[in-house]
Every structure is written in structure tokens, then in C-alpha cells.
């Protein structure tokens, strides 16, 4: 079995790594990955990272008080383009945890070249969109993976 046998990627220390291949549908008319697709790849990285930790979006939503994560802010730097057939790695590391907030650092690599970097600020909300503290069981899981800087 390969390092990425599970479709959800793998952990290297506290960093989650998700492989992504670039297909024709990912590119614009010039053959370069359309910029909004990097947001999709990073969303997959964050979701699969949480899933491999044992935190499932569906389970959060099925609680007595349904909960979800929402992106409050994102800072993104596009450093170089990716093109069709590239194999990329989405690296996700949760970097800060407090109250209702969960922050992530993400980077997308082609080999050793960093092509995109993002700082992501997420919050926990209920089904009415109101901010809620992270439940203790979720916090306990996240604390094992978060590397506060």
C-alpha cells in the first residue's frame, strides 16, 4: 500500500498531507489551474485532516445542538501556477485553538515548490449561525494536533 492509500491523505507529524492531481477541468483557457480551485483543494485538506483526527462534519451536525465550522477570514498568497497533470500536496496544520476559533496554516506544494500559502481563520457556529464554543470532546481531539505558535 502507498503512503496515501486512504483517499483522505495522511499525517506527517502534526501536518496533514493530501495528494491532488490536476485535471483538465481544474484549468482555465490557458491551461493553468483556475485560482478558485485552490480554495477547493484547501477545503478538502482541512476536512480530511479533521476526519482523520476523528472529527466528522456529519457527526457535529447531528448533535443535539447542531454545530459546524465556518470560515471567517482567509489570507492567501498565490506564488506560482500549477498546470494540468501536476501532482500537488495540500499541507494542513491547525495552528491555534481558542473558545470558538480554530486557525489553520495551509500550503500547496508541487514537489518542493510552494505554489500557494494560506492562513485560515475558522469558527464554530450552531444551526442558526451563532458562535459557539468548541465542544470539550472536539477540543480534546484538536489539542493533540494543534501546535500553538
Furnish the topology, listing elements before pairings.
Elements (H helix, E strand, L loop, with lengths): L9 E3 L2 E7 L13 H19 L3 H5 L5 E12 L8 E12 L2 E10 L2 E14 L9 H8 L6
Antiparallel strand pairs: 1-2, 2-4, 3-6, 4-5, 5-6
**Number of individual domains:** 1
Determine the fraction of residues in helical runs and give it as a percent range. Answer: 10-25%
Which topology does CATH recognise?
A: Thiol Ester Dehydrase, Chain A
Helix and strand pattern: EEHHEEEEH
Lateral strand order in the biggest sheet: 1-2-4-5-6-3
How far is it from the N-terminal to the C-terminal residue, by CA? 34 Å
Low-confidence stretches: 1-5
Classification by helices and strands = alpha+beta
Radius of gyration: 16 Å
The proportion of residues in beta strands is: 35-45%
Helix count equals: 3
CATH homologous superfamily caption: Hotdog Thioesterase
CATH class: Alpha Beta
Shape descriptor = elongated
Task: Please describe the biggest sheet, giving its number of strands, its sense, and whether it closes into a barrel.
Answer: 6 strands, antiparallel
What's the total count of β strands? 6
